[in-house]
Amino acid sequence: MAEPLTAEPQVAGPLAAEALAAEAPVAERPVAGPPAQAATGAQPPVRPLTAIDRAITDYLQHMGVERGLAANTLSAYRRDLARYARHLDGAGRRRPEDITRHDVTGFVQALSDGSDGGSALGIRSAARTVVAVRGLHKFWALEGVTPTDPASDVHPPMPGKRLPKAISVDEVTRILEAAGTDTATGLRDRALLEFLYSTGARISEAVGLDVDDISLHTPDQGEPGPAIVRLFGKGSKERLVPLGSFGARALDAYLVRGRPLLAAKGKGTPALFLNARGGRISRQSAWTILKTAAEKANITKDVSPHTLRHSFATHLLEGGADVRVVQELLGHASVTTTQVYTLVTADTLREIYAAAHPRALG
Fold this sequence. Notes:
Helix content is 50%, strand content 5%. By secondary structure, it is mainly alpha-helical. Strands 3-4-5 form a three-stranded antiparallel β-sheet. A two-stranded antiparallel sheet has the order 1-2. A hairpin with a 5-residue loop joins strand 4 and strand 5 (238-243). It is elongated, with a radius of gyration of 24 Å.
């Protein structure tokens, strides 16, 4: 657990919490991700540690420990609130109770035009940052740190509705069949892509899997499937998702003929999907595997691991699945998030109607 901040006179960096407190532990399984990037450019000037910095640290610890916020989300909150702390410091604010609504709206404007010295953000990035600031002030007000919530009526910018991009069943099939199966890495690649499309898993969920998280055989059945996989989503929320027969067979072939060869090159790891050195595969490697298969399949569209997740949901709904079932499979906290896929299928229905009904056009 992160240590409470002590009275140090000065701290280097944009946010004292970031420099002096270790990130609050999050109940999430470690997954291989992008390597930490070295800091570039000039370091922010040293500035005194303020009561605002300490209060932000308390909030981040609350979100990490008590709310169980995912590590990636917590890291984004930390960056967003670091920028907010710099903005407040520039405005001469030292205590949470000194902050006014004008300070908050001024920060929202700075996110759009970069007037605080930071980068001008797009609508979606700015909206995420404002959500972090609103959550901070709501927490302070509820905990009695501040008498009021100056951000209560400051709303994040609303991005236009962006429909998820799915590819057709034929295109998915071509990608899956383009993955090799004659080598250990080829078996892994096919198993990974089949898994992503069969379960709709996020790429971080897939690369974070251990062998013990999948069950390819039922107790009374010697053949692969029906299979079940245990996924750990955002905030370490656990869910069980069925795995189709194609995915189960691909995984079974990989576990029998591919993974042992890769594992022999490593030091021993419970990870399901291994790289060529026997360690847990990274998200970047998974991305490259999909890109390579898409190129072999002559798919010219921009395809990412999330494209398979979008396609999984869209194809289920087109096949008649209930939106609540799809919500559970995707691990969405709210059905509202899942309902965006119904707009995609509605567009498809309109196109079919316009082409097929004799009085649709004209």
